[in-house]
From TrEMBL:
Name by which UniProt lists this protein: Hydantoin racemase
Organism ancestry: Bacteria, Pseudomonadati, Pseudomonadota, Alphaproteobacteria, Hyphomicrobiales
InterPro entries in the cross-refs: Asp/Glu/hydantoin_racemase, Hydantoin_racemase-like, Iso_Racemase_Enz_sf
Keyword annotations: Isomerase
Organism: Rhizobium lusitanum
Signal peptide interval: none
Class of enzymatic activity (EC top level): isomerase
Key word Isomerase present: yes
Keyword Isomerase: yes
Length: 240
């Protein structure tokens, strides 16, 4: 089984960190590779960044299809281009937000999500609604730290996350916490040990879901919505 983890932004160190998280939980005989486009934003923080990242991400999936990759994990919590990615891939394509939400709904009745910047809150709230989890998600919170700040000052990032998790436990009565950024994945175990609440990382959740789907023989439906894109021909112009 070959799962390809795609970081839609162009920051290679974030790709490496997400891959490390994936390798910790994968089955022994599962191959996990990781790539990122080179011409996309260095971080994805809003709709414009998402739109700029999708073409490069789709190109990486098409490369994976030629190599026989079995499933893909989109390692950005905004799940950018997820539906488009499923149109071009034969195997499952898992977004880390959707995977984390599904895990949270399985292991808890109520959960909260903690992301980086406040501008990401409405994007994530819409995703939660799209995934049918609006009633279960108590709150979407932000630590007001840019994505790249997670790497630049990991000590401060962890301090802010611990404080926000404690507030979510107290104010939201959250029974589980989802980390709303792939760049937080390396902190998951320490945050859980410190706060005593289940902390869910979307990268590891998506890897395990991908393994389960591939192992069970499930592929992406090619009936109607997720069918391969139609090949278009340029209209011919009449010559005078």
């Amino acid at each position: 089984m070959h799962i390809r983890l795609i970081n839609p932004n162009s920051t290679a160190s974030m790709t490496s960190q997400a891959l490390d998280s994936a390798l910790r939980v994968k089955q022994q005989d599962t191959k996990v590779s990781a790539v990122n486009p080179l011409d996309t934003p260095v971080s994805i923080e809003g709709g414009a960044d998402e739109a700029a990242a999708v073409p490069g991400m789709l190109a990486e999936i098409l490369k994976g299809e030629m190599l026989g990759v079995d499933a893909y994990v989109v390692a950005c919590f905004d799940d950018p281009g997820l539906h488009a990615a499923r149109e071009v891939a034969r195997g499952p394509v898992i977004g880390i937000c959707q995977a984390a939400v599904q895990v949270a709904m399985t292991i808890s009745r109520r959960f909260s999500i903690i992301t980086t910047l406040p501008r990401s809150i409405p994007i994530i709230e819409d995703l939660v609604s799209d995934y049918g989890a609006e009633r279960h998600c108590r709150n979407v919170r932000a630590i007001d730290l840019p994505v790249l700040g997670l790497e630049e000052d990991p000590v401060e990032a962890e301090r802010l996350l611990v404080a926000e998790i404690e507030r979510a436990k107290r104010e939201d009565r959250a029974e589980a916490i989802i980390l709303g950024c792939a760049g937080m994945s390396s902190l998951c175990d320490r945050l859980q040990a410190t706060t005593g609440v289940p902390v869910i990382d979307g990268v590891t959740a998506a890897i395990k879901l991908a393994e389960a789907l591939v192992g069970a023989g499930y592929t992406t439906s090619k009936v109607n919505a997720y069918d391969y894109p139609r090949v278009k021909e340029m209209p011919r112009r009449n010559c005078a």
